[in-house]
Structure formats: structure tokens, C-alpha cells
Amino acid sequence: MKKEEVRKHFIERFGDVKGFLYASPGRINLIGEHTDYNGGFVFPGAIDKGMVAEIRPNNTDKVRAYAIDLDEYAEFGLKEEDAPKESWARYIFGVCREMIKRNVEVKGFDTAFSGDVPLGAGMSSSAALESTYAFAINELFADSKIEKFELAKVGQATEHNYVGVKCGIMDQFASIFGKAGHLMRLDCRSLEHEYFPFNPKGYRLVLLDSVVKHELASSAYNKRRESCEAAVAAIQKKHPKVEFLRDCTMDMLKESKANISEEDFMRAEYVIEEIQRVIDVCDALEKGDYETVGQKMYETHHGMSKLYEVSCDELDYLNDCAKKCGVSGSRVMGGGFGGCTINLVKDELYDDFVKTTKEAYKEKYGHEPKVYDVVISDGARRLA
């Protein structure tokens, strides 16, 4: 939704005194899945889809919020016991509370917001919402401004403490720090980050949403974390300085193979190789070598499907379609068991790829995948 439409809804709801317009993006992750909790790297970028909110202080101790897309209204105070019942409003409330914990004197405000991040497609609409309000509250109410990384942590803490999702930092980090024409390599151990150029002239990034979500996700995710921890524990017997799989080489893993179950070995093999792939992709981007980037994406998909076993038939089929159509790179994006593939497609192959895949997928599964073109864009900002 464009900022003009958000402003129109804001004025209809709260009167014709304008507020301030803010926006934050959703994100993609080009490569680096299941590396975050292993002390490795992730490689996200902000996208040209996100949240837009108009916000105006109202000289009360109440927040009056209107969710345009849901056509729902909520009103709540700023004390811990004032938590709203509406799930979407808890994100805004949580951000307010986390900013208050950081000594920001948050006051009441009126707000309306809307987004065009597709829900359930793994592009982090919730992080976009959190980042919009963290950035805005920091500008409007903080006497001494909070640093950007702390704003990302505000979003993460909102998920942990007010939504009940124990997420990592990547989504909020990408939404706050996004930079047009660049991806960001985030070191999940040190939290240091570095920008890398992403200007794929002659290529397009497109997500194909399988429109399925298998129920295995949360229990399977925990099981895989346990596998990684078990492999580290076995390796530590000979290499006591090892803390995460990030610190391990394939030689170390093979050396400890007798003490690691076959399943745990496969999981660790994927993670060690995936951490190296992120570094390889960074090197390739610095040379403008997008074919190598694509090849590494295919390697990631194979690892997630066969070693980490977090893909599913639908995602494997979309990946196979990409190969048949000559697409440069394709892989499952996100935790797995459903959601999207992310595809790096040459311009001249794009139309045929989308048409062929939609038809083939519908014939096999009874419905078409959803198609989302994405462009790498800027992070949280004030619009007007």
C-alpha cells in the first residue's frame, strides 16, 4: 500500500492533522539457512515490500491503532498490564514496552498502518512491523537516540516477550539495516556485519511460494538444533576450544564420525558446508560472478533436502522446475517444510520459467505457486 493511501485512512480515522510517515521492509535471505544458531553467517537483504505507518503523538497515555488491511482497531495503555488482546496490536505494544525498558519516555500516539509483505511467505512481515514502530518511536520520543542495532534487538525482544516466538536477530537486523543494491553478511556470533554489492544486471530475483506449510516445522527444528549440539559435543572431546559448528572443519567432523550418529553427522555436514557457501557467495559477488552465486544456491537446496532434510516434495519440485528451465540459482528459503523457493533468473528466461512452472505445478498439486518479484531496497526510514 502506498503512503498516500495510509495517510487517507489515518485522516479518516483520526482527523485531518497529519502525522509522520515511516516505513520498514521485509527481507529475503540469499543463502545461509540454519547457520544462525550454529554461530555462522546469514546473508539477508531488505526488499521493496514492507510496512508503512502514519504516527502522530496524541498527548495522552494511550495508543490508538488501526490495522488498515484487517480493518481492525485497538486501544491500549503503555503499562505492562495494558497488553491488548489483538495479536497484531501486541507487536506495537511490545515495541513500546521494550523502548520504555530502554529509558525512552514513550507517550500515547495515534497510528494507522498497512503492508504489502505477503503473509506466510517467509519475508518477515512481523519484523517489518516491529522495525517501523521502533524506528518511529526512537525519532519521536527518545531524547538521546538509541543505536540501530539496539532497535533490531527491540524487535527481537518484542517477539520473545510479547508474541512468544524465540526468533533470532536476522529478520529485524535486515529490516533496520537494509541498503538498496546491497546484501548484508551478519556474523551471528559477534553480530558484526558487512555490506556486499548486489546489482544483478541481466538477472531478476523471484520467489515462488509453494502455498504449503507442513506441520513438522517446530519439532523438527528443535531436533535439528539438538543434532548440531550433539555433533559439537563429540568434536569437543578432541578439540575443546570448539564452541559451535562454525568452529569446525569437515576434517574435524570426519575424525569424530565414530562418536556421532549417522543422522547427526549429516546435519553437521550440511551446516559446515553452508557456512562456507556464504563466504563463497560473498567472494563471487565482489567479482560480479552471479553464475557462481546461483550454483551455490543449488548446493544449498541439495543440502537442505538431502542432508538437513527440511525440504518437502513441493519445494523439491519447484527446484527441479528451475533446473529444467535453465535458472541460474534456486533453493528453499527459510526454515523449510513449506514456504518459498528463491530464484536467480536471467531476464530472458524469466517469462518462460514463471509460465512453465506455474502450469506444471498446478497440474501436479492442483494449485499454482504464488510469484513475488523482489528488489533489494533500503531499511527502516522516515518517508514524510
From TrEMBL:
<keyword id="KW-0547">Nucleotide-binding</keyword>
<dbReference type="InterPro" id="IPR000705">
    <property type="entry name" value="Galactokinase"/>
</dbReference>
<dbReference type="GO" id="GO:0005524">
    <property type="term" value="F:ATP binding"/>
</dbReference>
<comment type="similarity">
    <text>Belongs to the GHMP kinase family. GalK subfamily.</text>
</comment>
<dbReference type="Pfam" id="PF10509">
    <property type="entry name" value="GalKase_gal_bdg"/>
</dbReference>
<dbReference type="InterPro" id="IPR019741">
    <property type="entry name" value="Galactokinase_CS"/>
</dbReference>
<dbReference type="InterPro" id="IPR006203">
    <property type="entry name" value="GHMP_knse_ATP-bd_CS"/>
</dbReference>
<keyword id="KW-0479">Metal-binding</keyword>
<feature type="domain" description="GHMP kinase N-terminal">
    <location>
        <begin position="91"/>
        <end position="179"/>
    </location>
</feature>
<dbReference type="GO" id="GO:0006012">
    <property type="term" value="P:galactose metabolic process"/>
</dbReference>
<dbReference type="GO" id="GO:0004335">
    <property type="term" value="F:galactokinase activity"/>
</dbReference>
<keyword id="KW-0418">Kinase</keyword>
<keyword id="KW-0808">Transferase</keyword>
<dbReference type="GO" id="GO:0005829">
    <property type="term" value="C:cytosol"/>
</dbReference>
<feature type="domain" description="Galactokinase N-terminal">
    <location>
        <begin position="9"/>
        <end position="57"/>
    </location>
</feature>
<dbReference type="InterPro" id="IPR006204">
    <property type="entry name" value="GHMP_kinase_N_dom"/>
</dbReference>
<dbReference type="InterPro" id="IPR036554">
    <property type="entry name" value="GHMP_kinase_C_sf"/>
</dbReference>
<protein>
    <recommendedName>
        <fullName>Galactokinase</fullName>
        <ecNumber>2.7.1.6</ecNumber>
    </recommendedName>
</protein>
<dbReference type="InterPro" id="IPR020568">
    <property type="entry name" value="Ribosomal_Su5_D2-typ_SF"/>
</dbReference>
<dbReference type="InterPro" id="IPR014721">
    <property type="entry name" value="Ribsml_uS5_D2-typ_fold_subgr"/>
</dbReference>
<dbReference type="InterPro" id="IPR019539">
    <property type="entry name" value="GalKase_N"/>
</dbReference>
<dbReference type="GO" id="GO:0046872">
    <property type="term" value="F:metal ion binding"/>
</dbReference>
<dbReference type="Pfam" id="PF08544">
    <property type="entry name" value="GHMP_kinases_C"/>
</dbReference>
<keyword id="KW-0299">Galactose metabolism</keyword>
<feature type="domain" description="GHMP kinase C-terminal">
    <location>
        <begin position="284"/>
        <end position="348"/>
    </location>
</feature>
<keyword id="KW-0460">Magnesium</keyword>
<keyword id="KW-0119">Carbohydrate metabolism</keyword>
<keyword id="KW-0067">ATP-binding</keyword>
<keyword id="KW-0963">Cytoplasm</keyword>
<dbReference type="InterPro" id="IPR006206">
    <property type="entry name" value="Mevalonate/galactokinase"/>
</dbReference>
<dbReference type="Pfam" id="PF00288">
    <property type="entry name" value="GHMP_kinases_N"/>
</dbReference>
<dbReference type="InterPro" id="IPR013750">
    <property type="entry name" value="GHMP_kinase_C_dom"/>
</dbReference>
